[in-house]
């Protein structure tokens, strides 16, 4: 599916709303209107998919095209075309800037036009090869939105899908199970919803949660954690999920597609029953009816992504594959930042606001042991670990990662603006003595997109790698997530907020341990079990707070 312009997306969104309202009107009319209601609901569901088009969805769709090619060689031709299109877009943007510069940009105009003409000529040659070797490419490159029946055909008996679309004054939600479907319209507007989610996200700040863990209530001998507004989380559940749960009654694994403020909060932290006890009591938090107790969630950038991950297995050649590659524990010179907790062993995984250079970022002592444990679980040799000085940007770029099944990064994750001059998200690696274009210690999203992957899973054990901060106009996934999808990852483990170093290590290793236990379990279910185990740990009261156990979500194929 290609991206449509903003004006077209808004027009389709208006159509989606009109269709849903029509369903509501038909539902109170005579029984003869039932067929029309079904048709309008179907139209609304499909129109909503157009309104939710995103660059992340497009990235996964590009992966589907390569998988559909059926052979590594043909997939390489498809990737060549996709890269050429991306480069043409980049050069055309630069051409527009040079045009605005007037006479001072004359030389650049001539050069850029020549480069664009050369790339377009190369595209003609690639298209000729695709037309001969992959005649279905054109049709697959522009798929139609999925119908409700299409989605149901792709779901297993115990799976469901939630599609939530945020408008200015209303939120629309669809629930689709293997055999049932439902929809709801709530009066929650995007601005009000954004405010509620922003408050919850502020309470999910692990620094606040850790500070609360040290607080003792007068006259009581047990610690308290920072509050988490479970009542608001319960109201959100009641408005957005409960009305469509009839369609999900058999589901244990639920795919989630959402946008705007809805993309800023993992559904696992919603509360399915009226909260009991105080929001600062660790034991009350452990007993809370979190939605994580009911479903294992997987995030999809778009509804049609479900078809990509289910219909098109990754191309596999005869080459020998490696189970695991791990990069992390970079050599950094900043002071370690300790997170206050009952056990006094947690560390944040994120950047300091006043950092001046990559090497001044704090060290992450748990990342090395985390990667070693992941490697041990998968039976990977020491040579597949790139820790310390070996965790460099140049080594990542030079490594052949095209045959790696599980790829892990355990380090700092940076958002654009976290470092002076950083214009895109990045992963921090061991910085070189002298920065070069090939290695400045930061693996940016654009550099990730240039990697050649066929990974079943990429684990980003770092902070803020999911994106989506609760703003009404927020993109659902970060540039890093989109880049790894485009590079060839079929599933990604990403985080919604800064992750405690100790909690991240336990969540990732326990998730992989569940997958390697010999019992067939979905990726999303393995993560859910790890979250519940961490939440139930009574040795450290701060682990009961969702800031510790709920930061990670799986994007892409959360199934088997």
Q: What best-fitting shape do the alpha-carbon axes yield?
A: globular
Tally of helical segments: 19
Number of beta strands = 19
Arithmetic mean of pLDDT:
81
Strand fraction band?
5-15%
Residue stretches low in confidence (pLDDT < 50, at least 5 long) are: 1-18, 20-33, 335-355, 470-474
> Which strand order does the major sheet show?
3-2-1-6-7-19-17-16-12-8-11
Helix/strand/pairing category:
alpha/beta
Give the oligomeric state: single chain
Largest sheet: 11 strands, mixed
Can you offer a commentary on this structure?
By secondary structure, the protein is an alpha/beta fold. The protein is 42% helix and 15% strand. It has 19 helices and 19 strands. It has helices at residues 6-27, 34-51, 55-68, 72-100, 106-133, 137-141, 148-154, 190-203, 206-213, 230-240, 282-287, 305-311, 367-378, 393-398, 445-449, 479-487, 501-515, 523-535, 546-549, and strands spanning 159-166, 171-177, 181-186, 215-216, 223-224, 253-257, 296-299, 322-328, 338-339, 346-349, 385-387, 404-410, 413-414, 426-428, 442-444, 457-461, 491-495, 499-500, 552-556. An 11-stranded mixed β-sheet has the order 3-2-1-6-7-19-17-16-12-8-11, sandwiched between helices. Strands 9-10-18 form a 3-stranded antiparallel β-sheet. Helix 1 (6-27) packs antiparallel against helix 2, helix 3 packs parallel to helix 12 and helix 3 (55-68) runs parallel beside helix 16 (479-487). Mean pLDDT is 81; it is low at 1-18, 20-33, 335-355 and 470-474.
